[in-house]
Amino acid sequence: MLLLQNARIASENSPVLLEGDVLIVEGKIQEIGSSLALPEGARAIDARGRVLMPAMFDAHVHFRAPGFENKETITTGSEAAINGGITGVVMMPNTRPALDSATAVATVLENAKDRARIPVYTSGCVTKNREGKELAEIEGMRELGVKMLTDDGDTTADPAVLLRAMQYATEFGMFFASHCEVPELAGPRALNEGVMSYRLGIKGSPACAEEIIIDRDIRLARAAGAHVHIQHVSSKLGMETIRWWKSRGDVKVTAEVAPHHLLFTDEHIGDYDTNYKMNPPLRTQADCDALLEGLKEGVFDIIATDHAPHTPFEKAQDFISAPNGITGLDTALVSLYHFFVEPGKLGWDLVVKRYSAEPRRLMGLPVPTIEVGQEVNCVLFDTEAETTFTREFMKSKSQNTPFIDQTLKGRVDLVILGTEILLER
Amino acid sequence: MARKDLLDIASLHREEIEFLLDQSTSFKKLFTHSVKKIPALEGKSVLMLFYEASTRTHSSFEVAAKRLSAEVTNFDVAHSSITKGESVRETIETLQAMRTDYIVVRHSHPGLPGMIARQTTASVINAGDGAHEHPTQALLDAFTIKEKFPDPRGKKVLIIGDILHSRVARSTSTLLQKLGVEVAYLGPGSLVPKYVPASIPRFTDYEAAMAWAPDVVYLLRVQMERQDVQFFPSVREYHRVYGITTARLAEIRDKGLYIMHPGPVNRGVELCDAVMDYERSLITNQVENGISIRMAVLDWLTPGGEFPRQESYVAQQQVSSKVIMP
Question: ipTM value of the model?
Fold first, then answer.
């Protein structure tokens, strides 16, 4: 039994935090009220000033297993998630071997059961080995619970292949997640085409490389009657393209935005800092501002990190040679608080909606709330404390993040899932 | 104020540039002496680390170092462990163990000399990194222009060609602007990025660019080896639209304009053969001045690694953003 006293309770439905005591018994919320009596044998936690909210869910992570366990494993990845207040994730299938068959998916899910303290779901490939040619074993993966199909990291280049996959898989209630990029336009360098790419002498990737595929894939989904989910949008016009399609209402489209695309611009790359090298690349302040508007408006249904660990050795190369991607699970919630909630740009209700409730709805999972009778799946967040993202603090196996050694306001103090306290600080 | 490394033009202060150009004048005077060698860097070692092919820059640095009495070692990339998959980082660790004083580096990846500089106590000189910077080329260009225009402020230099892939264009334009020279770009729309700084007029039409009334026409080499895709239909068409044709040379001669080129020249592409004999062509002056500029740079830098890390101007901006404020 656990009594959280004087917590400020956040919900996706209310911009106001309600103060109260929350009594947890056997993994369920038994009572919410003011000045609840401490039952015998119960532990009291003074949560005064701290925010209690449903735990986050990240629908776009790379746990690198199987194949790249030197970067991340299911265990270290899920511990990084817990460290950041996240109690469920969806893995991307760009592992080695790629998750393009029931056998590969079954192995991952089996491993996850043994090695993670949180539910780990996985997406499956659209095409075999993510090569964009032959369809993956779609139904076999669905049988194991896969809902999301994606060749993430690579756009399914041939629209005819994607259309056929959409026509086929939609019958099984699956949806498609699109990494949007015309590779011939984007090039391999992961830097926005703009003032910075000129200055640094690196071939830039124009935003239109993303916008073209956003539009293409939504059109394909419309033609197939499929649901398409647009991953990690980075550009203003990309956001506006999605907004326009959503406003028509004749195609099922959802979209996500990553914290780093809201926070950083290509200027941050500065002196070739590979911690800012990611795909899609960081763009301009105008893009960041537009993405934030899109998040507030609901153009973006969810926040997802695109947690992409790489070893220090790989990232310590020069900008051209270093791989794309940054980690995000350890830092996402604190950084969202520090840069957006604390300065009043986003309310807690929106964070809960976009990073806890909607991602679970996308995946067809139950949505946790802080209400009587609900299973406990929550985070207690201290808005006054600070977090310093030292290497020791990070639980991800890799620490390729711009936040390394930064101190931000806010701290994840407690993560509870069912009867288990996953994290307590 | 001496520096450990010379990585870019962007971070050089005007006084530093003036100092290097002055020093270069003194070194150039040495060339008329029967003994051209001085003992300034006696006992010092210079390692030439060229990952890309180079004739002019490589030999120019080598001659410069030898005239200062330094020992020169050529790191033979083609026969090194790099061909066995050794990373640059590992190579640098090896080189650091050899305690060389200077590393002159050329690489196709932008930013790589900076990365090396952060890992060694040697003075690192960027001899060209991808399409990023080529600071000694910029210095020798400025020196060559100053020989003709001792006060170059207000003069105009038109840089023609492949701006997109050109480290020379970036470095030289930055340096000339620091000296008060106006710079404009001319080239095919596919090779002149639309994001060049607003201070540099961007032309895609030769007539319009000439109407801007340049004093110097600076032709860039068409770098076919960097073009993994086709940026213009043919060299014949390039020459006709952007090259100095015989007819255009006549106009340039009438106006008394100077012509420069970083070399090697693609004859019949950037310029017609006759340009090589044009009395106001500064192309060989550039080569000659390269040696004295590189002597000035080697003499100026101070190896040892006890100096604060040299920051490029973008890195200086970065200092404030280290407490990340979007």
Answer: 0.89
